[in-house]
Every structure is written in structure tokens, then in C-alpha cells.
């Protein structure tokens, strides 16, 4: 049991924690976290047979419900109890990231061959080939993502997303923020795609972990955001894990 559960069960130290308190704690823990581990166990048995699978698990770090990260670059995300759509979104997110990593790597290899051929023709043609690769990646992602968003969050997205945001900050501010978010995300995708061309998917996954750790640290230092003890421990584990991985790769 964690320290908070012991204090609660003992009524602030007034009595000893017994088996009944332990059972109550375990039942509460299972109700909250068991769906997560159940989904991840199935996904691990089916998909965790190649390095690109690690990328799929690391992608889940983007969700706000990240619980912890381990040395293997796993990410465990809380699934809301009694909400099957949340579990479905977790599975779709993981499987989609896995498929994207494998498919994108193959297509990029094909495009690299074509681009190398174009490079011998003219530098301008080579630059056009690089732009075409970005367009392919972005278009492929939009086709998959838009349909998923429409099916799962369509009505709520319009009511609470667009209308709520416009009413809060105004149409001009909303559109300008949306433009710059898209621009910076596009630039991030360019960097990520260039990186994936040069490294293995596992190394790319470790880089994603470092990126998210940096974002967490930056938000704490600059914006003063508070993090939970669990998030802090997970961040430390991620940093230590990446450091160990880097040392192993060097030896």
C-alpha cells in the first residue's frame, strides 16, 4: 500500500491497518488501473515483437493521463472506469501508431530511393522530392485522424471545442492560435520525419521520451505548473532509462 492509503486506512495513525483495509485498497486500485494493464498486456502479446512497437507505446505519452514510464519506454495511461470509449481510443491510438511506424518507414525508404535519383538530376528537384515526402506523411495522417475524430468526438468537438473556444477568446484569436499550432506541429513533424530517416525506430522512440520529459520540465520552470509525485517519479525513471540506454549503445 502507498503511504497515503496507509494513513487513510489507519485513520491518521489511530489504529493498525488490517487485511480488510488492504482488500479495500486493492479493489480500488484494480477498479481504477486494471483496464489499462489488461489492454496493454493484450497489445504487448500481439504487437510487441519488433522495435517499432515501442514507438506505439511511447506515443501514449502525449495523453494527459500518463501514469508512469519505465526503462523499456513503456507508457501506462489511465483508462477511465466505466468508459469503454476511452479504452477503445487507447487501443486505436496504440495500434495506429504501430502501423504508422512500420508503414511510414517502408514508404520513406521507397521515397528515399526516388529522392536519391532526383538528387542526381538537380538540387531543386531534390528539394521538391523532400516536400512531397512531407505532404505524403501529413496527408496520410489527416485521412486517418479526421475520420477517427468525427466518429468518436464529432458532436462534442463542435460544441465544446470550436464554439466554446471562440466564445472564450474570440474568432480572430482562435483562428490565429489554430494557425500557429498547426505551423509548429508541421515543423515538428518535419524534424521527426527527418530523424526517423536516420535512426532506428527504437532510438526514435527514446527521443520522443526525452522530448516529453523536456516539455514537462519546461512547463514547470517557465509556467510554474505543478506535477504529481507519480508524474515526477515517472519522469525520473524515463531520464535514467534513456541515460542507461545511451551508455549501452556507446559500449
Automatic annotation (TrEMBL):
It is found in: Membrane. Its main location: membrane. PANTHER family: GERANYLGERANYL DIPHOSPHATE REDUCTASE (PTHR42685), GERANYLGERANYL DIPHOSPHATE REDUCTASE, CHLOROPLASTIC (PTHR42685:SF4). One of its GO terms (molecular function) is geranylgeranyl reductase activity. The chain crosses the membrane at residues 231-248. InterPro entries: EmrE-like, Geranylgeranyl_reductase, Sugar_P_trans_dom. Residues 112-152, 168-246 form the Sugar phosphate transporter domain. GO terms for cellular component: chloroplast thylakoid membrane. It comes from Lithocarpus litseifolius. Pfam families: TPT. Keywords: Membrane, Transmembrane, Transmembrane helix. GO terms for biological process: chlorophyll biosynthetic process. This is Sugar phosphate transporter domain-containing protein. The keyword Transmembrane helix applies. It comes from the Eukaryota. It is a multi-pass membrane protein.
Amino acid at each position: 500500500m502507498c503511504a497515503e492509503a496507509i494513513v487513510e486506512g489507519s485513520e491518521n495513525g489511530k489504529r493498525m491497518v488490517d487485511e480488510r483495509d488492504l482488500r479495500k485498497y486493492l479493489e480500488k486500485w484494480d477498479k481504477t488501473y486494471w483496464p489499462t494493464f489488461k489492454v496493454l498486456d493484450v497489445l504487448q502479446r500481439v504487437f510487441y515483437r519488433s522495435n517499432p512497437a515501442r514507438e506505439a507505446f511511447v506515443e501514449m505519452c502525449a495523453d494527459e493521463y500518463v501514469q508512469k514510464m519505465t526503462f523499456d519506454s513503456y507508457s501506462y495511461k489511465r483508462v477511465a472506469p466505466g468508459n469503454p470509449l476511452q479504452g477503445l481510443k487507447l487501443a486505436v491510438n496504440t495500434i495506429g501508431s504501430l502501423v504508422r511506424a512500420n508503414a511510414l518507414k517502408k514508404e520513406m525508404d521507397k521515397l528515399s530511393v526516388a529522392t536519391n535519383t532526383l538528387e542526381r538530376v538537380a538540387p531543386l528537384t531534390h528539394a521538391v522530392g523532400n516536400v512531397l515526402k512531407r505532404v505524403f506523411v501529413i496527408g496520410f495522417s489527416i485521412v486517418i485522424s479526421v475520420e477517427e475524430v468525427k466518429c468518436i468526438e464529432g458532436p462534442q468537438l463542435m460544441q465544446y471545442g470550436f464554439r466554446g473556444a471562440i466564445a472564450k477568446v474570440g474568432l480572430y484569436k482562435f483562428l490565429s492560435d489554430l494557425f500557429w499550432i498547426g505551423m509548429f506541429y508541421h515543423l515538428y513533424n518535419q524534424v521527426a520525419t527527418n530523424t526517423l530517416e536516420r535512426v532506428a525506430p527504437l532510438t526514435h522512440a527514446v527521443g520522443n521520451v526525452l522530448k516529453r520529459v523536456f516539455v514537462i520540465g519546461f512547463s514547470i520552470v517557465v509556467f510554474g505548473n505543478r506535477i504529481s509525485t507519480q508524474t515526477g517519479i515517472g519522469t525520473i525513471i524515463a531520464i535514467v532509462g534513456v541515460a542507461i540506454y545511451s551508455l549501452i549503445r556507446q559500449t
